Amino acid sequence: MPLSRSLSMTSLSGVLPSWEDDELPVEDLLLFEVAWEVTNKVGGIYTVIQTKAKITADEWGENYYMIGPYFEQNFQTQVEACEPPNPTIRKAMNTLIENGCQVHFGHWLIEGSPYVILFDIASAAWNLERWKGDLWQTCNIGLPYHDREANDSLILGSLIAWFVNKPNVICHFHEWQAGPGLILSRSRKIPMATVFTTHATLLGRYLCAGNTDFYNNLGRFNIDKEAGERQIYHRYCLERAAVHCAHVFTTVSEITAVEASHMLHRRPDVVTPNGLNVKKFSAMHEFQNLHSTSKARIQEFVRGHFYGHLDFNLEKTLFFFIAGRYEFSNKGADIFLESLSRLNYMLRVRNDVTVVVFFIMPAETNNFNVESLKGQAVRKQLWDTAHTVKEKFGKKLYDALLKGTIPDMNSILDRDDFTIMKRAIYATQRHSLPPVTTHNMLKDSTDPILSNIRRIGLFNARSDRVKIIFHPEFLSSTSPLLPMDYEDFVRGCHLGVFPSYYEPWGYTPGECTVMGIPSVTTNLSGFGCFMEEHVSDPAAYGIYVMDRRFRSADDSCNQLTQFMFSFCQQSRRQRIIQRNRTERLSDLLDWRYLGRVCVSAVPLCFHHRNVPLEPGKGLKGNIVSKNSRGVGHFMKVQESLGGLQH
């Protein structure tokens, strides 16, 4: 039966093309969504496909399948194995299995329970050299033997091209790792419509990490030279070929669309902003109570971490945080640290507020450091001592009141009680400053965050009004140090700070928004641009948008410092009102609405998919051959490849 359009998909007036009737144009249409991060958490794409799964599954029902690589641990913990209900899928899987390639099928245990088809890369690795030859013969792109990620992506792509051979199929490919599947499918003229989404261009990420003035020089880069010097030319070729082979090319924000136009030489057909499953985070009027509960748990950790130096009032202490992949410049940690140094000076001069800042960025460590664990042990010991004395005090007070007398406070506690309390106080004495990191860092001397902390001199001294805690590991409720899930931790903080220089979308400020936590973002992030476009005064709703595109680094630092200082000057009541206003923006980020933009790519696929490749050329004729510049430089994808975009 034909699939009807879901009533849950709300149209964005004036933005999306309309269909002529209420049904999809092809009966029995299958949608395959291909990504390296299906059941495999690596970065932000995992969040995209996981949160979008329910709205897509509701729209497509049993005609929706996700495709990705098989990892045994992930499959055992996240997937419920079952038999494919569709006989065509079952037949295609059996064909691969009979040829020695293992394929796994099941329900991914997330909201929406989508079907997943996972290919075992290792079981098909014996075909790698043959498939590398096919890729070379097809489009003159060679892959070096030492780049395992690129080789694995080719194996996955070859299996997908082998697997998907049914008409009336739409394949949506995410990022360059899925690119080989698109390229090979198109080269073999498999009758399917294709969508390719880039969440960040390969070269853009590398260039920004190298401290280049990226956005002001987009048109001046020698792209082939830059990719070659970074030894990613073969990956860049795969990405660019996939972009030009796709019927529809999409990206996640306008800022990334501009970037893709220069880096990949094709303007995206549709911009599909990333959403969230807001229902998962929704707490209605309870979200303020959840903030208080989670804040109390963070305060307990802070009491232990700063034992012996807890001379600041926790009721006047604000919790800021930054989280994400450890890309020091791209994520704006450099700007953030410099701004914290300036904020520290301003708070020491003009305010009695203390700010504790958490850096949640995974880095190489070998374990928790002793001082951090000792702090939590001392806190627990103090709590147990206080609880014991309180029980004894309470019993004596209760007995005295029953007798109708007011007890002598000096007689309620005996000498032993005072001795116990004094010993507990002496145990909190500390001859060193509270540590700035919770773990033993493997590269302590060269770590960018620690090096900059040494430069600005924020060592958690008593005189500092800004305290820093670097937690180089993702949060977990099973941690013996800070036993909180990321969601609970975010709810307990007051402000998320994400001054990114390179952030094609930015899920972290979006997650803050749906949980009612104000955040700082930039006009170089997709999220920041989206908010500036759709909200007339984002700052009034707790979304502070820094200008990192048209201001110098020093001016951006001053702007961020002023944002944070203004936030510190708010009263508790003002912060509560602002959290209410922030949470009201949740619906703007809901997949129920943004998913409609993704669906708009479907009619475009059908508009373009019957346009053939240029006769007599195929793919290879659109890519020039050998570049003699060495291992890192393979085949140059020319502008003529643009002839394949339809």
Automatic annotation (TrEMBL):
One of its GO terms (biological process) is glycogen biosynthetic process. The keyword Glycosyltransferase applies. Its EC number is 2.4.1.11. It catalyses: [(1->4)-alpha-D-glucosyl](n) + UDP-alpha-D-glucose = [(1->4)-alpha-D-glucosyl](n+1) + UDP + H(+). The keyword Glycosyltransferase applies. Keywords: Allosteric enzyme, Glycogen biosynthesis, Glycosyltransferase, Phosphoprotein, Transferase. One of its GO terms (cellular component) is cytoplasm. Pathway: Glycan biosynthesis; glycogen biosynthesis. One of its GO terms (molecular function) is alpha-1,4-glucan glucosyltransferase (UDP-glucose donor) activity. It comes from the Eukaryota. It holds the Pfam family Glycogen_syn. It is an enzyme of class 2 (transferase). Transfers the glycosyl residue from UDP-Glc to the non-reducing end of alpha-1,4-glucan. Belongs to the glycosyltransferase 3 family. This is Glycogen [starch] synthase.
